[in-house]
UniProtKB/TrEMBL annotation:
Domain (Bacterial type II secretion system protein E) ranges: 95-260
MF term (GO), any: ATP hydrolysis activity
UniProt cross-references to InterPro entries, sorted A to Z: P-loop_NTPase (IPR027417), T2SS/T4SS_dom (IPR001482), T4SS_GSP_E_ATPase (IPR050921)
Protein name per UniProt: Flp pilus assembly protein, ATPase CpaF
Source organism of this protein record: Rhodoluna lacicola
Family, as annotated: Belongs to the GSP E family.
Tree of life domain: Bacteria
CDD domains: VirB11-like_ATPase
């Protein structure tokens, strides 16, 4: 059984539309698909009721090993090349919402991304040098900009190295025998057993990584990672959501503030921990610069 057929015939039919990169369901009556080269378009919904959609959402999340209910109305899972987010009808919104991102099955290297126009020749050489010199780097960009694609391509250059990737939902999926993916875990129905990214950072450091990678930093895990990198760990990488390269440090300061770290301290730690910042927009690398 393929991942698409495992989701049932209705979702399977929607995901089988040629070129689909995103499937967005806004309640049982509204379905949108984003197709490469065509943009967002509304398609006919195959769902007959909110109850049907809600039940399907719960089944999909369970298939990915997590649970979705009124106590936990939001959940993310990764199933093969699909990243699925579900928001169950609740006090937050009367409708169930399902968002599915379709990742390419094929993993591209830096040279192939350059052929596709994501990188210029000099940028390709710079990124390879960053990897070769084991310099720590941070990739920034907005949602869907190509952060994960670029990170995966850069890590594919690390032949024979032990890479530990820490993610909320497993997406990198490197094809390497010494690649280890650790995924966060939500609390159970009793509110126990949660494993955060911050905890994973601390555990991963005991697993002798050659390279430590955090899929996306957005909370206290950044502080734990900075502490690790400032004790001499090299070759690390992470991504962060930011709309421009200039916004990166603003985002970092905001994360630091929420974790009780003042702006001056976290900026100083960032400059010491990460050598390079790489910003992507619309699946193109637009900035490669030293972080200060």
């Amino acid at each position: 059984m393929t991942p698409i057929t495992a989701l049932g015939p209705k979702l399977g039919a929607l995901l089988s539309i040629q070129g689909v990169t995103d499937l967005l369901i806004n309640g049982h009556g509204q379905v949108f698909v984003d197709r490469a080269g065509y943009g967002m378009e509304q398609v006919a919904s195959p769902f007959e009721s909110e109850a049907e959609l809600g039940q399907l959402a719960q089944q999909i999340i369970a298939l990915g090993g997590r649970h979705l209910d009124q106590a936990n109305p939001f959940a993310d899972v990764s199933i093969a090349n699909l990243r699925i987010h579900a928001a169950l009808a609740s006090g937050c919104n009367p409708n169930t919402h399902v968002s599915i991102r379709v990742h390419l099955n094929r993993l591209f290297g830096l040279e192939q991304l350059a052929d596709f126009g994501m990188l210029q020749t000099q940028q390709l050489l710079t990124l390879r040098q960053i990897i070769f010199d084991r310099q720590n780097f941070l990739i920034s960009g907005s949602t869907g900009s190509g952060k994960t694609t670029l990170l995966r391509a850069m890590l594919s250059e690390c032949i024979g190295e032990r890479i530990l990737a820490l993610e909320d939902v497993s997406e990198l999926a490197l094809q390497s025998p010494n690649y280890i993916s650790l995924q966060t875990r939500q609390a159970n129905i009793e509110g126990k057993g949660e494993i955060s990214l911050e905890r994973l950072v601390r555990e991963a450091l005991r697993m002798r990584p050659d390279r430590l990678v955090v899929g996306e930093v957005r909370g206290a895990e950044l502080i734990a990672m900075l502490q690790a990198l400032n004790t001499g760990h090299r070759g690390a990488a992470a991504t962060i959501h930011a709309n421009s390269f200039a916004d990166v440090m603003t985002r970092v300061k905001s994360i630091g503030k929420s974790a009780g770290v003042d702006a001056e301290s976290i900026v100083e730690q960032m400059g010491s921990a990460f050598t390079w910042g790489i910003h992507v927009e619309n699946r193109k690398v637009v900035t490669i610069a030293k972080l200060k």
